[in-house]
Amino acid sequence: MEVVADDGFGGSPFPAITDEPLQKASAIEVVAKLPIPPNAIAITGDGDLYVSFHSRHDRGNLKLAKWDPKTQNLTAWPTEKRQLSYWQITSLKLHGNSLYALDDGINGLTNKPKVVAFDLQKGDERLRYRTGTGRGSLVADLAVHPDGKSLYIADASMIRGLPKIFAIDVETGGRSVVLKGHHSLKANRSASILDATGTHTLRWAYFGAFPYRPAVSALAIDAKNDAMYFAAPSSREAFKVPLSQLDYARDTNSHKSARPYVSKFLDHKPVSGGMVVATNGDLYIADPQTSAIRVYSTRSGQPVLKTLVRDPEVLRWPGQLAIRDGYLYVACSALDTAFTGRKVEGGGLVVRVPLLV
Questions:
Q1: Cα 204 to chain centroid, rounded
Q2: Which candidate, 133, 144, 69, places its Cα nearest to that of 101?
Q3: Distance CA 217, CA 326 (A)
Q4: How far apart are CA 191 and CA 19, in angstroms?
Q5: How many CA atoms lie within 13 A of 215 on its CB side?
Q6: Which residues 6+ apart lie within 8 Å of 330 measured at CB?
Q7: Are 348 and 332 in contact (CB under 8 A)?
Q8: Could you give the C-alpha distances from 99 to 75, 122, 190, 243, 323, in angstroms and in order?
Q9: What element of type H or E holds 30?
Q10: What pLDDT, in 10s, does the model give residues 16-54?
Q11: How far apart are CA 122 and CA 163, in angstroms?
């Protein structure tokens, strides 16, 4: 892959990771061919796929939709009229019979960021809470606590530059910041994120005047091992913190108490997108810049980051991930094309690959 040496803002590209993938590209299976590249995804046990679309793509009024695997049809969900109440859904998560959707309101500039929970059977809203993050925020990902009583949300704070992780009580909507002001949350100001070709620097805001360097944007809970993994796409490091310590910070409304328990588990991380933990503790990480999926495992006793699969033709800027019935589902977002001022041709894909056993 050809790379540029500098992005014009003092940044340099991420080092290449060139290990041999554990699976061949032929292991990738197309689940859905969509007219628009997907942003966030969630999939039920019946195979129903819920998908959101990024404002950088030509999506019209379609913000949230449902893909029926039997009919191969994509329909606005829950209704076409309800699309007007959403702006930019950055994360979708399932818990029980609820679908949680995180809407960043396009950095809080177009509308107030919010989280909505839907009844999967009826499509009715079960709750709608404002996140309280306001203008200049970027609520990028959410994780549902295993007990279903609270949500953890990452705010990359692209404009305000104050990244944090906060919790929302599902029953009351009460909000508490559990981690902020810590280096683990911040963007790397010397990092340059390139598109999948390695020749264009991703830019955003004010007609592409600034390099795209997001702070904390991905969360993944490992309930079995009492861990919350989190990472900033533009950082070369990834971190974790005991979930129990975040719970304590939530219950005491203290954003400082969890800081001493934050630890680094990767110091040579690639550009990262979505993350998700399998039941065996393996952590899957989307690596959009090299069109790959990485897997971090401690099962051998020695922590290791390996490449699960790579395919530049199919894995077009892989982003959000989901796990269901032994497969890893991947949203191929093609956002690098949009963030370099080009139009995506040919729609987008949701694909899946087998999990490691």
A1: 18
A2: 144
A3: 25
A4: 22
A5: 24
A6: 286, 293, 315, 318, 319, 320, 321, 350, 351, 352, 353
A7: yes
A8: 16, 11, 37, 22, 15
A9: strand 29-34
A10: 777 999 999 999 999 999 999 999 999 999 899 999 999
A11: 35
Say how far apart CA 283 and CA 272 lie, in whole Å. 12
Binning the chain into helix, strand and coil, the percentages to the nearest 5 are 10, 40, 50
pLDDT of 264 strictly over 50: yes
In angstroms, the CA 159 to CA 165 distance is: 16
Inter-residue contact 193 to 185 (CB < 8 Å): no
Burial 235-272 (b: 16+ CB within 10 A, else e): bbebbbbbbebbbebbeeeebebbbeebeebbeebbbb
Query: Could you give the 3-state DSSP secondary structure of residue 335?
Result: helix
- What confidence tens digit (pLDDT) does each residue in 132-157 have? 998 989 999 999 999 999 999 999 99
The pTM of this model reads 0.94
Kindly list the distances between the CA atom of residue 231 and the CA atoms of 138, 234, 273, in Å, as whole numbers in the listed order. Answer: 14, 9, 9
DSSP-derived 3-state class of residue 89: strand
Rounded (5°) CA angle 19-218-256: 120
Whether domain 12-354 has CATH 3.90.740.10: no
Q: How far apart are CA 286 and CA 308, in angstroms?
A: 10
